[in-house]
Amino acid sequence: MGDVSILDFKVKLDVALQEVNPEYCWFHPRAAAVPGRGKRGQPAVIMTIQQELSASDFYSGLYYMRTDDLGQTWSGPTEIPELAWRHDANGVIIAVADVTPGWHEATGKVLAIGAQVRYSSDGRQLMDIQRAHETAYASFDPKTNQWSHWQAIEMPPGEQFNFARNACGQWLVEPHGTLLVPFYHGRTASDLCASVTVFRCTFDGSELKILEQGNTLKLNVQRGLTEPSLAHYDGRYYLTLRNDVKGYVTVSDDGLQYEPIRPWTFDDGSELGSYNTQQHWLAHSDGLFLCYTRRGANNDHITRNRAPLFMAQVDPQQLCVMRDTEQILVPERGLMLGNFGAAPITADESWVTDSEYLSLKHDIVPTANGGNGSTFVARVLWEKLNLTLTDSTG
Fold first, then answer.
1. Radius of gyration, CA atoms only, the chain
2. Residues 83-139 pLDDT 10s
3. Could you give the CA distance from residue 290 to residue 336 in angstroms, rounded to a whole number?
4. Domains of the chain
5. Got the DSSP string for 18-29?
6. Strand-pair category, 248-252 with 236-242
7. CA 306 to CA 167: how far, in whole Å?
8. Would the pTM count as exceeding 0.90?
9. Could you count the other beta carbons within 10 Å of the beta carbon of residue 354?
10. Taking CA 321 as the corner, what is the angle to CA 192 and CA 13, rounded to the nearest 5 degrees?
11. CB contact set of 244 (below 8 Å; sequence gap of 6+)
């Protein structure tokens, strides 16, 4: 493992929500810590979540859950009226899915970014107008407990941004409050070999604007590159990328200009085996970690091998996953995982949040080995304090 210092961690698995409902299943849970708003000076944690409905990738408006005692108790899911479905003059449903929330210290708000989608009444995604699939954002003010309405980010001109999403993607807040937000984009959703670009943005508490655009990453393989997630560790920026055949990774010194992509591998040179799904990061002051699903875990019976959910330390110089550090975050219980979130919570722990996919609408039922549609919080308990977090985050 070269000169990489290994950072040990333990995993404690909690269940935040469990429900079996014939109309929907809960999906896409992602958490953000709000410094000092919980009990005894600890952070409150806001977890956004949505219902998947009768069709694949057909999502409700946004809900959220909240804990003020680091997950001992939860409130919600609570529907957010400001972020419910809208309908245009033709009756088209307008929703925002694939949402990732995060704390924006400079404005004192939780910023939530996701993909705006237009649906028919039966849940089909529509490309019925120009730039039908945009990226939208909203914010939560913990002082008033109020959410703003969704707004769309104004993208640069050009057909290459007709379809432009930050969806299921981790984004970063820089020290002075600017953001680095990765997008995947292309001409249309139906004719898409997507490219990835990172934008530097400003957020003033109400409006998110693009300042600068980085280089464009491309791959001419089955839908190209999608669902990019970004991390900062030891002065460099790391980008993980979804592709139908295999996952990819790249690195940058400035957050905008990235090296040529390379496939994810283990440190022995073998392929990681993560494909056609997202990967996410946990960054600690003493190590960089990747969360992922993969082949080769006696899990070929699971769609896209999307369970169990793993985490391992990354060699930041070789850009590979150190196999001996791999641990299971969420076990395989006969149901698909994926579409998850990963976020720092306190200096002692980070959380990876995920839901088992159990949809009675799709004839998926509880399993004999315990799969019951649970929404999990995998608490990653660090051996050392994460010094990238300030005292105000706990």
1. 19
2. 999 999 999 999 999 999 999 999 999 999 999 999 999 999 998 998 998 999 999
3. 19
4. 9-393 (2.120.10.10)
5. E---SS-EEEEE
6. antiparallel
7. 18
8. yes
9. 27
10. 90
11. 221, 222, 223, 275, 276
